[in-house]
Design brief:
Jelly Rolls; mainly beta; PNGaseA_N; PNGase_A; signal; globular; Peptide N-acetyl-beta-D-glucosaminyl asparaginase amidase A N-terminal domain-containing protein; 5 helices; 2 domains
Length: 613
Amino acid sequence: MAVFSVSCCILLWLGYLPTALSAARLSGISHQQSQVSNANSLVDVFQVYQPIPNKANGSIGCNRDVLLMDHVFGYSYGKPFIGIYEPPDCDFDTVRINLTVTSRGRQFDRLASMYLGDTEVFRTSTAEPTTNGIVWTYIKEMSQYNTLWKEQQKLIFELGNLIDNTYTGSFNITLTAYFSHNQNVKTADIILPITARKSASNSSSAFTVPSDNTTVLYQFPPTASRAVVSISACGQSEEEFWWSNVLSTDTKSFNSVAGDLYGHSPFREIQLFIDGILAGVVWPFPVIFTGGVAPGFWRPIVGIDAFDLRQPEIDISPFLPLLTDGHDHSFEIRVAGLDTSADGTAVLSDFVGSYWVVTGNIFLYLAKDASYSVTRDTSNDIPSIFAPAPKFTVTRNLVKDQSGKNESLSYSVIAERTFNVSSSDFSWSQVLSYSNFGLINQQGTSQANSQSTIGNISSMRLGNDEESDDITFEYPLVVNTTYGGTDASKEFTIDASMKRGLDIEATGVTGISTYTLTSGASRLHTEQWGRAHYKSITGGNSTSSGDTFDRFESNTEGSSYRRSVRAIDGSVVLDTNSSDVTHPLLVSQSASHSVGRDSIRSILGRGPGLLQN
């Protein structure tokens, strides 16, 4: 163990000691990385998002930088980075982190998570590197976790990576935090993790669903005046492309050509239960990681939210009369799909495929008045809940060719759900709709899915000072893929097109939202579309090229931002914000690039080969 001092801030490192950096050098990390990337021809990959300055303007009395991590993730399965964070010796209310990553060689895209103790505070993923190397920087608002930053924490950063003769790319990561005081909005007083709580054993605390029991127990303080749960959940392995899955009755429809398909339908619902009572749901955004569908889409522009996976929120304030009764209460997160009966009736399933990575956080806001207590119904502290069963309409049609072989499968799922929970002081409601129309033809080698998820969420404080916050969202997705080739030909190809988007509009949020990623009212509209091609030769290289357009518009905290970017075969050919020094235009050295994932199944979720490790 060593003591490491940066700008009056102390960081204790366990098992790894980086070279000491001065505060002046820390403040210039992003600039220096950009210079290095240009000198060594590293390709600058990026997610289009509204820029966040490293340091908030107008800081009052606190302006500190802390190097949290400078680490190389080589062969790192089961070997997360472990460090001890010490808070700076100044009064801060704003925290932002700068994540800068470089990588060279061949490697899968990887999922990564950052924890303060048992609490997950950041989930991200990596881009697939190239032989010459890539670099990216992402700056994230982290003030919503102020109560954790105020105390010493064990910092755990997990990025499970594989190094062997084929997969040679390590991920070199520098993580820096910037602390300032800017009269920020009030954030939670207590944060309780809904996790496996394994930090004591230097491990990640994420649940793996459906195999893990996600239940935790907590007793709330009597002065809790507001409570919000954030949920982080994303599918991996058999569940990475959940939005393209079929009904479980059809998983073997094309197994002689495309292998087994994955089931439980293309619908997923993340459910939060309190004491076994449904408290709210999340209909997830379909994240596409940089190795998915066709890797050529995502160079150098990565997919929407690939570098910062949002955490949707469920306001559980209506449950406070129950939760502040001085007893333990259970919190559980489940993931459900759909199962169908012989007559075609669809119901929520108890299980899904393997697997989802799931955590949650409970953000508690305490009343300033120590004598405060929520309004109680002396006869029953359980809130009034209106939660009719969701409505599902499911169709399927399997067509055979003249020889009797299955030729095509068309299917659709339409879902609607309403949910409302209220107490004397609070009301929270959801109105959700979903549709997915799928077609698999050419005996499983071609697939198209058109999906739409739309929702409205309303949170109200009742009484004399009545106020309400509303969030509306929409996730459109259209993906069309066709693969070809056989083991005998030793060559496989994928041709793909996609159009997808993310729209969020909020009239307000509690504190700083883990979903809108800001405080107050906000609006976001972003969309991506394009075409890509993939080619692999058995025993040789796999390459992918593409043409992707990304349009982004947002307004947060009164500041507007617009940017449109187009990349063809790894080169940015259009950028309306080309003066942005964080993402300079860099021309790639070839029209196609080697890729990490090495099988059709690992890229599409169907077809020959194995899933990603």
